[in-house]
Specification:
alpha+beta, 7-stranded antiparallel beta sheet, 322 residues, globular, Alpha-D-Glucose-1,6-Bisphosphate, Chain A, domain 4
Length: 322
């Protein structure tokens, strides 16, 4: 068992990419949900839009830790000249009482390589030894995952750009924006409302964070099960999500539902950002399949489901359901 008080950890990884490339990945926090498995959503509350400018930024971060969803606010000091980023949680999520640390990027032993170090310093609420062990386990697991992801991203940066793509669909609604948002938020009712959803297991824990296991049936009759975490923002009529278990063709899938007032009605939009699982393409689509053909298949399937959901949300709102 860990001793109580402040605890410190250090993690390293060597990367076959330049220090500048590695620093750029660490600095670009809004991209973390598509890059790092534990990160669900990031919002920049203040600071420079361009990370290379350096300075102070404040971030609101949602992430998984030991199978739970946590949210906190962090302040980061970006120092591109020294390739260092210091961070400190301003508002932590129990059982964390305090958390700070630093990313350090240094030139590696060989030209064109880098060593990335991640430092953490943390304490538990009420100095509880069991909670300290929980934090240590979560920090170790997430740090190892993040460093491995950064290594993979930095060493395959050119290829990663080819694998990522994004798209959106939207529809005008002659109805109450709140009714549209309610339809999208009430996912537990989707098996009764959406033809392509055959099953849904949903729990909301904590409030406004939904854990979903959804069964869908494609137009060709094939069945898929996905697991997602959704973060709901009722005041903004916005829902962001990340799939924890994706279909074979996708390595990562994040998205958002947004409803905004538009004249006397509303405009509802579904946005997706996807990273292809390149290794699965020939197995799923055949030996001659290309990255573009995989993107086309996903665009048709995912976009088709989103369009169907938006159409039924539109009908729900325009029917003035209570």
């Amino acid at each position: 068992m860990l001793r109580t008080g402040t605890h410190r950890t250090t993690h390293h990884i060597d990367i076959d990419a330049s220090a500048a490339a590695v620093y750029g990945i660490v600095a670009d926090a809004p991209a973390w949900p598509v890059q790092f498995a534990p990160t669900l959503h990031v919002e920049r509350l203040a600071g420079p839009e361009e990370p290379s400018a350096g300075g102070t930024e404040r971030l609101r971060i949602w992430a998984t830790a030991n199978g739970e969803a946590k949210v906190w606010t962090s302040r980061r000091e970006l120092d591109p000249a020294q390739s260092r980023i210091r961070f400190r949680q301003e508002v932590s999520s129990p059982p964390v009482a305090a958390m700070s640390g630093e990313w350090i990027v240094e030139a590696g032993a060989a030209p064109g390589t880098a060593r990335l170090t991640l430092l953490h310093e943390f304490a538990a609420v009420d100095d509880d030894p069991g909670d300290l062990a929980w934090i240590d386990r979560a920090t170790d697991e997430n740090s190892r995952a993040e460093l491995a992801n950064i290594k993979q991203l930095a060493e395959g940066a050119a290829r990663s750009a080819d694998l990522d793509f994004a798209f959106e669909d939207s529809t005008a609604v002659d109805g109450d924006p709140e009714a549209v948002y309610r339809f999208l938020r009430e996912a537990a009712a989707w098996p009764d409302r959406l033809p392509h959803v055959s099953g849904m297991r949903l729990r909301e824990e904590p409030e406004n964070i939904q854990w979903m296991v959804m069964d869908t049936v494609a137009k060709d009759g094939s069945a898929h099960t996905t697991e997602s975490v959704r973060v709901c923002f009722p005041a903004r009529r916005r829902i962001v999500y990340k799939q924890l278990v994706t279909p074979p063709l996708m390595a990562t899938h994040i998205g958002a539902w947004t409803v905004v007032p538009d004249g006397q009605g509303a405009r509802a939009t579904s946005w997706h950002r996807i990273r292809l699982n390149e290794e699965a393409i020939p197995r799923v689509l055949g030996a001659g399949a290309t990255l573009q053909s995989a993107k086309d298949v996903i665009r048709a399937a995912v976009g088709g489901n989103s369009a169907a959901t938006l159409a039924l949300a539109k009908r729900f709102a325009e029917g003035r359901h209570e």
